[in-house]
Amino acid sequence: MSIRGLKKKQPKTFKVRIITVDAEMEFSCEMKWKGKDLFDLVCRALGLRETWFFGLQYTIKGMCTWLKMDKKVLDQEIPKEDPISFHFLAKFYPEKVEEELLQEITQHLFFLQVKKQILDEEIYCSPEATVLLASYAVQAKYGDYDPNFHEPGFLAHDELLPKRVLRQYQLTAEMWEEKITAWYAEHRGIARDEAEMNYLKIAQDLEMYGVNYFPIAQNKNHTDLLLGVDAKGIHIYSINNRFSPNKSFEWSSIRNISCSEKELTIKPLDKKAEVFKFFSSQLKVNKLIFQLCIGNHDLFMRRRKVDSIEIQQMKAQAREEKARKKMENQRLAREKQLREEAERAKEELERRLFQLEDEARQANEALLRSQEAAELLAEKAQIAEEEAKLLAQNAAEAEQERQRLEITALKSKEEKRLMEQKMREAELIAVKLVKESDRRAKEAEHLKQDLQEAREAERKAKQKLLDITRLNYPHMAKYPQYSPGDSRDATFDKGSIKLDLKDIDLKRLSFEIERERLDYLEKSRKFEDRLKELKSEIHALKLEEKQAGLCS
């Protein structure tokens, strides 16, 4: 067969991109493949056996719909793109996750999808529950909490809480991390699959978990209700309340569901009960609701039947896998515990070794210090001996100085006594000088008075003599060349003698006064010189006494 013939027989293909919650895959599909062929290929690639929960979702004209398994892929109304994108998502939800999710991959895919729905606020969750769920998500991602490894800020790049919760409470990222870490530290020893299962067990109790909502109306004109389809049945909600249904139809109480164009009819099992009819905006919405109702009802009935051989095998394998994982986890826990104990023992030995090394180092340092201290003590002993000699020498010198100071003190005392004596003498001399000065001043005053009286008497005598001369000898004015030896002039000569005698006494008295004044001035000068000498000697003695005090 030629190469051209082989090329002609190769089937034509088209490319698809499969987007899971955490990965993307691309496949080449044959043109004739149905939706089930592509779905089975994806499940085989993922290693998924619990295929009944999942489907391939795509968006066309703004509406999310599911790929039909019994029709060709290219015959369905899918996006015209290359490659064609499909989202591999959970289409139906279990009633009890712990009992129905058997494979770890199934559990992991549900965990990722539910977590995304909570973060995207498609499922409402209280702030307290979101923190707890976030702690299980962190445990599943990072394993056991280790404060040495998981330092503050290690959750900075993880999206763990809905934006609504972050806006509701004015807390910093550090505060939220602290709250999550407080719960996270409590999950020590929980494996990844256990943490994810605990997450799902909490999430399955939320009111909006696993519910697909569609706007409906009880008549053809108004869309004033919401219809919700989940694993337990069909629920009717008011437009503003997705938590508490106004009316519910459990799958066990529904006899029939029919769909015709935009009308959907629910017939209860009780024939007497009222038939519920509602309208949707589009036929496609009605068909989608009908498709979800059939799928959820089939799973509901399947859970209440005896498990098929495949399910029994899967459950047995799941139990064996859980038992094996439990034993493996226990073994790992023991190994981890032994490793931690070994590490603690190693750390203790290292600490002890470090302590011993530190003690040895300290002992060596102490020995070196003791040797240095011994050398220093020897030096100090030598220095002390030299200091002792020096002190002895200083003591001898001090004794000599003391004796000298005693002699000096005796001299100082004697000099002080002499100085005091001289001071007393000077004081006495000064007193005498003051008294003598007063006495001389009084004498001088008396002499001055006597002198004034004598001069006054002399003046009066001269005046009187002149008066007498003028009266008795008027011719003497005409004849001044008289002879002093005449007898007529006896009286006149006698008066002249008396006058001369009086003049001589006055001169003598003045001379004596002048002589006594000069004597007084001489004595005063001598006393002043003596006082100066005494002051000089006293000052010199004071200086010697000060110097003697400083030397001592």
Automatic annotation (TrEMBL):
Chief localisation class: membrane
Coiled coil: 311-471, 517-544
Subcellular location, record wording: Cell membrane; Cell projection; Cytoplasm; Nucleus
PROSITE patterns: FERM_2, FERM_3
Keywords for this protein: Cell membrane, Cell projection, Coiled coil, Cytoplasm, Membrane, Nucleus, Phosphoprotein, Ubl conjugation
Binding positions for a 1,2-diacyl-sn-glycero-3-phospho-(1D-myo-inositol) per the UniProt entry: 68-71, 287
One Gene Ontology term, aspect cellular component: cell projection
Molecular-function GO terms, alphabetical: actin binding
CDD domains in alphabetical order: FERM_B-lobe (cd14473), FERM_C_ERM (cd13194)
Topological relation to the membrane, as annotated: Peripheral membrane protein
All residue ranges annotated as the FERM domain in the record: 14-304
Protein name, entry field: Merlin
Organism taxonomic ancestry: Eukaryota, Metazoa, Chordata, Craniata, Vertebrata
